[in-house]
Amino acid sequence: MAIKEIASKFNSNSKTEFNLLFESKSKLIDIKELTIFRVCQELCNNAAKHANASKVMLHISENSDVVTILFEDDGVGFDMSKVTEGIGLNSMKGRVGAVGGSLDYTSEANKGVKVIINIPIGQNDEDD
Predict the structure, then answer these.
(1) What letter does residue 80 receive in the DSSP assignment?
(2) pLDDT tens digit string along 72-101?
(3) Which of 55, 99, 118, 121 is 20 to 30 A off residue 67, Cα-Cα?
(4) Taken in order 20, 26, 27, 32, is the CA torsion positive or negative?
């Protein structure tokens, strides 16, 4: 699976310990699989470039109607009252929104970042 390749690449090219937990049973439509891959890739790239984290956790799970992506790092974080959303975050929000999902994040300076993404498993309205 492509997401496991991200974890492997991240671990081999970084001082950061990367942990991936992937729990999925269903076959998603291609656009949602691609969205999940690209968002996970962006989260990992951001951690590698900006977080200065020693540990990163990416947990992808699924229940009957939604895939949840939980991302956490123990990096430098940021003060949410002083940060404007950059290209990476706006790109992730756009991708997730395009498949009917939601993206929420929290951070504090020197306390890392936490991102929660929920993507519905069912078909998009436009695919019907």
Answers:
(1) T
(2) 999 999 887 776 677 778 899 999 999 999
(3) 55
(4) negative
**17-58 tens-digit pLDDT:** 777 777 666 666 678 888 998 999 899 888 888 888 889 999
The residues spanned by each domain of the chain are 20-122
Tell me how far apart the alpha carbons of residues 42 and 7 are, in angstroms, rounded to a whole number. Answer: 12
pTM, two decimal places: 0.81
In CATH, which of 3.60.130.10, 3.40.640.10, 3.30.565.10, 3.40.50.300 is domain 20-122? Answer: 3.30.565.10
In DSSP notation, 60-86 reads: EEE-SSEEEEEEEE-S----TTT----
Helix, strand, or coil here: 98?
helix
**Do residues 58 and 40 lie in contact, with contact meaning Cβ atoms separated by under 8 Å?**
yes
- For residue 123, what is the DSSP state? P
Residue with tokens 């997401």: 3
Nearest CA among 20, 35, 33 for reference residue 70: 20
β-strand pairing of 113-120 with 102-107: antiparallel
Residue 43 token pair: 């989260």
